[in-house]
Amino acid sequence: MSALIAVQNLVKIYRAHRQEVRAVDDVSFEIEEGTTFGLVGESGSGKSTIARCALGLIPLNSGEARFDGRRITGLTERAMRPVRAEMGMVFQNPVAALNPRMTVRDSIAEPLLTHTTVRGRALDDRVGQLLEEVGLDAGFATRLPHQLSGGQSQRVGIARALATRPRLLVLDEPTSALDVSVQAQVLNLLQELRAQYGLTYLMISHDLDVIRYLCDTVGVMRRGQLVESGSAAQVLTSPRHEYTKQLIDAMPEAPGAKPRGADTIPTKLRRTTQ
Ligand code: ADP
Ligand code: MG
C-alpha cells in the first residue's frame, strides 16, 4: 500500500485584523489509497484548513503536501490542474455550494468542461450517468438548486465532485447540514461509491458516529494540532489522549458501537431510515 495523500509538518497561519491565527500547527498524516481517514475535533480546530492545504488550494507557511508521491506544495496553477482533476471536494452546505442560477446538468458538467475534452452528447451522457450513480433520476438534470431538497443537493454535490473520476474525495462535514434520516442515506451512498470506485476519503466530521461508520483511521484535532491518530478502532475505543476521551464522553450516544466493518448504520442514524 502507498499513501495517496501525505502531509508533513504542515503549518498554516492566517493573518486577520493584525492578529495571527496558527490554524494548523505542525500536522503530519498519510492516507493510504482506498482507505478513509477521519478528522475530528471541535469547531475552529483547523480541520477545514487542513483540507484546503492537502488539496493545494491555499499556500502553506511551512511543511508540504504530497499527492500520490508528488509534491503539490508550491505548484503553479497550471501544473496543479491535472492533479486537481484527481481530487474532488464535497462541502457542508450543499445548497450554498451550488450556483443558484445553474441547472444540475450545468453544475455537474462544469468540472468536465474544465478538465476534460468530453463535449456534446457524450457530456450529457456522462452527466446522466453521474446522476444515476448518486441515486438521482435523469430528470433532475434540468432542475435548479432551489428545486432540490437538502439531500438531493448533496447528491448533486457528490456527482459534481466525482465528475472527473477523481481518486480522492475530501468531504468537509458532508452530512451535518442534513436531516438525520437523510444523513444515513448519504453516508450509505458514500460507502457504496467508495467500494465501487476504490476511492480514498478524507472525511471531516465532528460526529463520532459518522467517523465510526465510515473511517479506517482517525485523527483528532485540537487548536491546530493533531493530538492523536491511529486506527478508528483504537482511537475510538481506547483513546490515548485526554482530549479524545473527553470528545467520546461528550457524545450523546453510549460508546461501544461497532467500528467500521460492522455493516450496520449507527443507532442514532438508523432510527429514522425506514
Ligand atoms: P474547523 O474547520 O476545524 O472549524 P478552520 O480550519 O475553519 O477550523 O479554522 C481554524 C482557525 O483558523 C480558526 O481559528 C478560524 O477562525 C481561523 N480561520 C479559518 N479561515 C480563516 C481565514 N480565511 N482567515 C483568517 N482566519 C481563518
Ligand atoms: Mg470546518
UniProtKB/TrEMBL annotation:
UniProt keyword Transport, yes or no: yes
Disordered: annotated segments: 252-274
Superkingdom: Bacteria
Protein's UniProt keywords contain Ligase: no
A Pfam entry, by short name: ABC_tran
Signal peptide extent: none
Keywords: ATP-binding, Nucleotide-binding, Transport
Domain ABC transporter: residue ranges: 5-248
Family: Belongs to the ABC transporter superfamily.
Name by which UniProt lists this protein: ABC transporter domain-containing protein
Naturally occurring in which organism (per UniProt): Leifsonella bigeumensis
